[in-house]
Amino acid sequence: MTKLYNKLSTRKFRKTLRNNMPFAERLLWSRLKSKQLNNLKFRRQYSIGKYVLDFYCVEKRLAVELDGDSHYLSEYDRESDIRRDQYLNSIDIKVLRFTNREIYYNLDGVLGKITSPNPSLSRRGVRDQ
Q: Is 36 within the bounds of a domain?
């Protein structure tokens, strides 16, 4: 059976990502870590399959992805995000996507969406600004 979660082959890469988190990720992590949010345990830079997720809550089967400027630079990036979301959804993992702007200007609203019993999935172009 193939290992799906936190493969050893991605360990060094995940550590590099954790040590070089963009400011928006650090800001959100400061509110997610240590079970601060509704006693939910979040992991950062958690790998599932061939993807490394920004944040993941095992209990809710919820991935939280932050879309910085790099997610809007090319058509490939948008297509890659769509494929990633489809894969995660196919293994029963919900994906919430937020822009860096949402983290900076509406962090409490973002946290509210994350803790919602049935979070509505964010899709590009449908996010609150």
A: yes
Cβ atoms 78, 88 nearer than 8 A: no
Beta-bridge partners for 48: 5, 51
Quick one: residue 86, left, alpha or beta (phi over 0 = left, psi -120 to 50 = alpha)? alpha
* Cβ atoms within 10 Å of 24's Cβ, excluding its own: 20
The answer on pLDDT for 93 being more than 60 is yes
In angstroms, the CA 66 to CA 64 distance is 7
Q: Quick check: is 12 in a domain?
A: no
Expressed as residue numbers, the domain containing 94 is 22-115
Helix (H) or strand (E) holding 27: helix 23-32
CATH number, domain at 102?
Answer: 3.40.960.10
Q: Please check the confidence at residue 88 and state whether its pLDDT lies above 60.
A: yes
DSSP 37: T
What's the predicted TM-score (pTM) here? 0.83
Instruction: Kindly tell me if the per-residue pLDDT of 77 is higher than 80.
Output: no
Query: Is 14 within a domain?
Result: no
Residue 13 scores a pLDDT above 90: no
- Number of structural domains (the chain) is 1
